[in-house]
Amino acid sequence: MIQDTGNSGEWNWSYDATDDLPTTLVTITATDILGATATQTFQLTVNNVAPALTIDTTAVVINEGTTASKSISASDVPADTVSVTATLGTITADGDGGWNWSYFGDDDLDTTPVTITASDEDGGTTTASFNLTVNNVAPTANDASFDVVDNSVSGTAVGSVTASDPGADTLTFNITGGTGATAFAIDADSGAITVADETQRDFETTPSFTLEVTVTDDDGATDVANVTINLINQASITGTVFVDANQNGLYDANEMGIDDVILELLDEMGTAILDELGMPVTATTGDGGFYLFEDLDPGTYRVHEQQPTGVDDGAEHLGSLGGLIVSNDTMQLTLDQTDASDYVFAEIGQQVSGGDTATIGFWQNKHGQKLIAQGGTALAQWLTTNFGNVFGNAFDGASGADVANFYKDQLFKQKAKKSAGSAKVDAQFMAVALATYFTNVNLAGNSAADFGFSVTATGIGTKIVNVGTSGAAFDVADNTDLTIMQLLLATNSLTDTPDGVAGFASIYDTNGDGIIDASEASLRSLANDIYSLINEQGDL
């Protein structure tokens, strides 16, 4: 109590309400100097006052992956402790009596009200609200380039497309275009690319592919990664086995390749390389002595030729990538990603000797006729394929017996005609062709051996004959060395060139008119000298 100034007998009562106070009885007591007292009472209540709250309530719009923030001011009487909360986001004290609200937009969020509440310990609260929106952001897909071995099998891993998203979105990967859209596949969840169709990839035709990979987040936003897939060439080794007719060490254009020769692929230690079944890798020559080893990994290889019978061993010749001749019939080279070509094995044609051929009389007698008949349709097809200008369609659908009858009735019995040259030259030609077929074990097996022929892997087709003064009949210079097969093919090429005769054409009927003129007769005579010599020199 405080006495009023001037001792007027009035007093002032006061109370500093530093905090709320429940209803409380206040007693005022007056006492005189003699100790007499008087009292008066009343009730006092101090109400709590909610904190003061200040915050900007402007709406907040952010992109996912970023943070929104606002400053908050909240105050109350010193005796009260103020706390601040939010329905969404994080509240932190700033150390200076204020607060900060923040929210990390880890994913998109539709417009949502955020309420900030300031509270004291007596239950007083003050609130303020604003709207928060978090926009979705499209993912970022990363361009990429990968390498994959040419001709890799389906399912082979190529690489993975990577992408990022600022939000907590789930990403989906799809191939939506590009030259390799059907050759490759992609895992929708991981972005891992694998080979889908191994048949579509060939370095020689398409060394690289492109892919358009679309990455989509779970809100439908997209980005595109451009992917390049380069094929790593698995190199090949190619070459030829041939008869070096002129023995100049070069595979000349008109020289004969030898089919059905086996080549082995070895490692640099000379050990056989095995395929996926554990079998040695080999190649067999075909299409004129050509061989191919393909889809080879980088490394050092050796190519070994199994020496064919019927020819003498010749030299080996290194090809485009160089290398070493490590031993007879074996060449070594190192591959990276470049194809190796022209690794050739030269063979030396032998001279015609007894047992190689037979005279035209043999082929018309019962033994020769029987052997021809054993040739069957395969013989008819071989004659047509190689000497189509001469035989035309004469052997279409023919059996071996048909071929035998044709030789005996159409050729062996042929009579000389005016200006026709030798009457038997057609029979001499066919006799050499028949011997070429039946002495080759890869064409006719060993059936001719029972009749006294020498049967080898190459037959007499690789035998060497000097044309002497008959070069014009084979379109070469006189005294040129040719294989027997070259002689036969040259005769075929100079026969019935306009294809004027549907069936059999007499050899050297160059204009195909069915009439042998003087110049054609001259060629027939020259050819007869060579073919009859071959048949007599190699007779059984």
Description:
By secondary structure, the chain is α+β, with helices and mostly antiparallel strands. It has five domains: 2-46, no CATH class; 52-135, Sandwich (Immunoglobulin-like), CATH 2.60.40; 140-232, Immunoglobulin-like; 235-349, Immunoglobulin-like (Sandwich), CATH 2.60.40.10; 360-537, no CATH class. The protein is 17% helix and 35% strand. It has eight helices and 32 strands. It has a five-stranded antiparallel beta sheet, with no helix packed on it. It has a four-stranded antiparallel beta sheet with strand order 5-7-10-9, with no helix packed on it. The relative contact order is 0.08.
Major sheet details: 5 strands, antiparallel
Distance from first to last alpha carbon: 157 Å
User: How many independent structural domains?
Assistant: 5
Poorly predicted runs = none
Q: Order of strands across the widest beta sheet?
A: 24-23-26-29-28
Helical residues, percent: 10-25%
| General shape | rod-shaped
Write the topology of this structure:
Elements: E1 2-3, E2 11-12, E3 21-31, E4 37-46, E5 52-55, E6 60-63, E7 67-75, E8 82-86, E9 90-93, E10 99-104, E11 109-120, E12 125-135, E13 140-141, E14 144-149, E15 157-160, E16 163-164, E17 172-177, E18 184-186, E19 192-195, E20 208-216, E21 222-232, E22 235-243, E23 262-267, E24 282-284, E25 290-296, E26 299-305, E27 311-317, E28 324-327, E29 330-335, E30 344-349, H1 360-364, H2 366-386, H3 388-391, H4 400-412, H5 425-438, H6 441-444, E31 464-466, E32 481-483, H7 484-493, H8 518-537
Helix pairs in contact: 2-4, 2-5, 5-8
